[in-house]
Design a protein that fits this description.
- 2 copies of one chain form a homodimer.
- By secondary structure, chain A is mainly β.
- The first copy, chain A, has one domain: Glycosyl hydrolase domain, family 43 (Tachylectin-2, Chain A).
- Chain A has 2 helices and 27 strands.
- In chain A, strands 2, 3, 9, 10 and 11 form a 5-stranded antiparallel β-sheet that branches.
- In chain A, strand 6 and strand 7 form a beta hairpin.
- The longest helix of chain A has 10 residues.
- Chains A and B meet through strand 14, strand 15, strand 18 and strand 19 of A and strand 14, strand 15, strand 18 and strand 19 of B.
Chain lengths: 356, 356
């Protein structure tokens, strides 16, 4: 078997954490970024919360406000019978052409650090530096799906910021997980699933990202930077494939893994089997060139905690830790609800790509 | 009157230029970028061509190929009764959910320089440096709507690149209009209407741009750069306004004009009156801050060449030349067909914004 799930799965469930305020419930602890720091494995976990609905016939919408004191989550209440709105479990969308209305999320995410000695048993960090909250109007609907990349001593955290203004990619950096520097939006909307390479290639920093919207089908692009903050040279890398497991949308997961044969990139693809995990091999010197790509997923939703949850049939991997002897620990979200882990060998992934 | 149209209008019509190949017709010479160079006024005009349709029941689609020899426009023929497609005058869209199909444009644009001694009578440049053609797969459906900004001796040309991969912003630079350096895509899809500020602000280059798609309503954002090539620090500037003349979408036109009261930015807005031209005043030191914005357009489609054409009721200004004594010459597209011009005084625009 290419990928072996940890027997401790799920590693983190919503029950492991108290809601951030009264009247809220935690519905997801999932899609973590992963890294090693001072001999421990760290996860930056997306924590999704929603208001407990006490008024039948209404839907409470959480919105994060930073322009008020104290900053925090306020509630908007929408009537379920209001013909202006179409309600799904995750999203409330305006039905009509009223250009002044925008969509809302029914739940709001922030990011929380969890730490482990063995990579299996994780403890949330309850300290003042343990949480990244939304900030500013462009994060009013939450921050999601972080990637953590170590470049030298610096840890780079990209995450998805959601607001009425669009979905875009923000960057936060740290060297110690106590002080964090926020660098704003490195990519404009509509974009998510952005992840750095762990080292320069031909003297440039590289970033894989996932633009979408309009004429652009959700696929993987690459950008170049001299300084990690400013990005240009955007190039198309790969898109969804007709008739394949990744036919609808694809996006990069955790940081690429350097091998002598190329960069191994773990990515997610959605299609007839839900959200699956696959791999692609990118050229070492020209990583916008795809050498090979998984014909079948390396992971699909099989376990109960992957098939059933807030959104079923989802495995979504954006965390990876490189271990000695070519072993990889993958951390991933199951069913948009829990955090789980799995191990695999980079050699096996390379071999599976050679057969492709 | 705030804006006075040139009596020579329209300045350039599709009849002024021969099609680039047999069997094609020029349907638009419009939406020019504008600049001054060596005492002359230059325009970089969008030239839209389409194949003359000789087969009833079919729609010929032009696609630019650079991977073949010689590079050039090839034709795809779609049957009008094919249920897979929905045909409009500009666009062919897939009807069904087949994710392998993408939209096409029915016409293809390239960019052509035209020069004038007086800013009124223009002559197309037929020389080898007179045309910018699409290049590469990401420009297969053409290049459109250039902005030209002079920064010192350097002229910066941004334009919109259209392909099945999305709509994004490319940068080309020149100092002499003979040799051009191509810098690829400075913004990923979905983005267009990007224009530089003519000088650094607080030691950074600035760019206004127009992302769209998904949760992002088509509005104006600003980005920052140390080198004109790599961009970060994306900030929201302004969006469409409910119930106003610019209620559907807005985008920046020509380069901002520096005044002691702030940056005057000419922009387009679409809404109930079609595409109109308006102005906003941005803070001198923090240009992401909007000080004022036109309550009524400074130009709407009034003349016949603005009301009638390939797409009627469109005035779209992306060219501007600053003249002595605070006079501005605006160059704009009428009805997505012709190039026209108008004059106004920056003082009058500022006064109109004060009343707003």
């Amino acid at each position: 078997m290419l990928v072996e799930r940890f027997r401790q799965n799920p590693l983190i469930t919503p029950q492991a954490i108290a809601p951030s305020r009264e009247g809220f419930e935690v519905i997801g602890t999932f899609n973590p970024g992963a890294f090693e720091f001072n001999g421990r494995v760290g996860l930056l976990v997306r924590v999704a919360e929603r208001p407990v609905n006490r008024e039948p016939g209404t839907v409470p919408i959480p919105v994060f406000h930073t322009a008020v004191h104290p900053p925090g989550t306020r509630l908007i209440s929408l009537r379920r019978d209001d013909p202006k709105w179409r309600f799904t479990m995750c999203i409330v969308q305006p039905r009509g052409p009223d250009s002044a209305l925008h969509s809302y999320l029914t739940n709001l995410s922030h990011l929380r650090f969890a730490w482990s000695e063995d990579g299996r048993v994780f403890q949330f960090d309850d300290g003042p530096a343990g949480t990244l909250w939304p900030q500013g109007e462009c994060e009013a609907f939450g921050i999601e799906d972080p990637r953590v990349t170590q470049v030298g001593r610096l840890y780079l955290i990209t995450y998805t910021a959601v607001s009425p203004r669009g979905i875009c990619v923000a960057l936060t950096t740290t060297v110690d997980f106590h002080l964090f520097a926020h660098h704003g939006f490195i990519l404009p909307p509509e974009n998510k699933n952005a992840c750095f390479f762990p080292q320069k290639v031909r003297d440039e920093y590289l970033l894989l990202h996932r633009p979408s919207g309009g004429w652009c089908r959700p696929g993987i692009w690459m950008a170049r930077s001299p300084d990690l903050i400013h990005w240009g040279g955007h190039q198309f890398v790969a898109g969804p494939r007709r008739g394949a497991w990744d036919s609808t949308r694809i996006g990069v997961g955790p940081p690429p893994v350097r091998t002598t044969e190329g960069w191994v990139v773990i990515y997610h693809g959605s299609g007839p089997r839900g959200y699956c995990v696959g791999a692609m091999l990118l050229d070492l010197e020209e990583p916008a060139r795809v050498i090979a790509r998984s014909e079948v997923p390396i992971m699909t939703a099989e376990a109960d905690y992957e098939k059933n949850g807030f959104i079923g049939d989802v495995v979504f991997c954006n965390g990876l830790v490189e271990r000695p002897d070519g072993e990889l620990w993958l951390y991933y979200g199951g069913a948009d609800t829990v955090t789980a882990g799995a191990r695999c060998r980079v050699r096996d992934i390379l071999d599976s790509l050679k057969q492709a």
